[in-house]
Specification:
The structure holds 2 protein chains of 2 kinds. Chain A is α+β, with helices and mostly antiparallel strands. In chain A, 37% of the residues lie in helices and 28% in strands. Chain A is built from 9 helices and 17 strands. In chain A, strand 4 and strand 5 form a beta hairpin. In chain A, helix 2 runs antiparallel to helix 7 and helix 7 runs antiparallel to helix 8. Chain B is of the alpha+beta class. In chain B, 21% of the residues lie in helices and 37% in strands. Chain B is built from 2 helices and 8 strands. The longest helix of chain B is centred in the first third of the chain and has 22 residues. The chains are: A alpha+beta, B alpha+beta. At the A-B interface, helix 1, strand 1, strand 2, strand 6 and strand 7 of A face helix 1 and strand 8 of B.
Chain lengths: 335, 125
């Protein structure tokens, strides 16, 4: 009998180690990572239960999207539209322009994809942006305005010298095309970052993903973290692209009424929603309209947001209360 | 003669099983050291075991632009770059698993793997 007890004890020990070894093995389920560059940004991917081919396919999808919607690519439908003021668009470009125009109407044009002529004037697409002449800003403003875009089925027409730029949606949309590849591959989980946009799909060894939100006041620190799955996260901030001239700092998020950088007390806006391109568009739109107006739109898009003000206050919407963690104080707000 | 509760053979068997279990545990845990992986355009150019760094040194990576990287026992950072915005330098010291910084114009990135702490999977902003 006692002999039997010792055998059972031995078997129990054996089973315990076997169970631990299995769980340890599952915890370290060899994630595969890749670093690449597209859309003028760093692209990072980590997949769980996938292989190198999954990473390659996602990267190809991102590059294909960039080729399709970047105004910088002469072969893209957007370059064709800007060149001829008229083009038959691909389904993806049409979807993004339609969504953008709706958001422009809702923000009284504060979010506007025809802001390109202003962006080019300031040189924010180059290595050397500079303060333009006031008259040139006024001339560029005449070429902006979402009402200059006419959509007729899949034909889009631009009036008054307008040109469109889908950069405000591109990186978020890129995360979504990558996640679509993860879904196709049937992997258990994956995370993709394209510049400041992030897509999280599934789980990593049964756990949600932790997404850090960069501190707009200190690039080496995090403002906090979000524990998320199956969602997209994008951030727009005035700290990203900026330059100084005559002792004044100028950032790249331009006010379509004045032609100068938006000044509304915000330094960054992070948006979380279940559509990649939209998360990116909403981050820009919310930054440009300010916190109060943004809160009136958030319900319609089933989005959540983090607003950080220039005087270092953090506001998060109610849906994030359980998944946002920060060592800083923050206020939970309801739309 | 009284039968012993646990025979010598049982002790040896249990010891062997525990040793095997421990070996499996250590093997599966693996990669405990903090490694800094430096990449140019997604290809690894240098891997540094940060636990073996005793004193500060720098090296240059000839990416699309030249960047200088400084390694210390505490971590690794971009210390000089020919890029315009110097954002890579502003990322500061990378020391925990999952920390990452890149100089996009140079297409040079650094990430920390292994080690403890640091649970961030990706960063927005």
């Amino acid at each position: 009998m006692k002999r039997t007890v010792s055998i059972y004890a031995t078997l129990l020990i054996l089973f315990s180690f076997y169970a631990y070894a299995c769980s340890a093995s599952r915890r370290s389920d060899s994630p595969k990572s890749q670093t690449s560059y597209a859309m003028g940004s760093l692209v990072t991917q980590t997949v769980y239960g996938g292989d190198g081919q999954t990473l390659e396919n996602a990267m190809k999808a991102i590059v294909a999207l960039d080729d399709e919607i970047s105004y910088r690519n002469d072969m893209s439908v957007i370059a064709e539209l800007n060149e001829n003021a008229n083009a038959r668009l691909s389904a993806k470009a049409l979807e993004l322009i339609t969504q953008s125009q709706k958001l422009s109407r809702e923000t009284d044009g504060k979010y506007d994809i025809t802001v390109l002529s202003l962006v080019l004037l300031w040189g924010f697409d180059t290595d050397s942006p500079s303060l333009p002449d006031d008259n040139d800003i006024r001339s560029a403003l005449l070429k902006t305005g979402y009402e200059k875009i006419t959509i007729n089925d899949d034909i889009v027409t631009l009036a008054g010298g307008a040109a469109v730029d889908l950069s405000a949606a591109g990186k978020g949309e890129a995360c979504e095309v990558a996640v679509n590849e993860y879904k196709k591959a049937g992997i258990t989980g994956g995370i993709v970052t394209v510049g400041g946009s992030v897509g999280v799909y599934g789980t990593k060894n049964g756990e949600k993903f932790t997404v850090g939100v960069r501190d707009p006041f200190d690039a080496s620190s995090l403002l906090g973290t979000l524990l998320l799955t199956d969602i997209y996260i994008s951030t727009s901030g005035s700290y990203e692209k900026k330059f100084s001239s005559g002792g004044t700092e100028y950032h790249h998020l331009l006010d379509t009424d004045t032609g100068y950088p938006v000044e509304n007390g915000l330094i960054s806006v992070t948006v979380i929603c279940n559509d990649g391109g939209l998360s990116d568009m909403l981050a820009s739109a919310f930054f440009c309209v300010g916190k109060e107006k943004a809160l009136t739109l958030i319900g319609e898009y089933s989005a959540e947001a983090i607003f950080v003000t220039t005087d270092k206050h953090i506001y998060i919407t109610g849906g994030l209360a359980d998944c946002f963690d920060s060592s800083y104080g923050f206020t939970v707000i309801s739309p | 003669m009284k039968t012993k509760l646990i025979k010598k053979a049982d002790i040896i068997a249990a010891a062997v099983i525990i040793a095997a279990g421990l070996a499996a545990f250590l093997f599966l845990r693996g990669g405990e050291g903090r490694m800094a992986v430096v990449e140019y355009n997604g290809k690894t150019v240098k891997t540094i075991d940060l636990s073996e760094v005793e004193k500060e040194y720098t090296f240059t990576v000839n990416g699309d632009l030249d960047v200088e990287i400084t390694v210390t026992p505490e971590g690794i950072r971009f210390s000089h770059s020919e890029c315009r915005d110097k954002l890579c330098i502003k990322f500061g010291l990378l020391s925990q698993r999952g920390d990452m910084a890149a100089c996009v114009p140079a297409k040079v990135s650094i990430r920390i793997t292994g080690g403890t702490g640091g649970t961030v999977d990706g960063i927005t902003g």
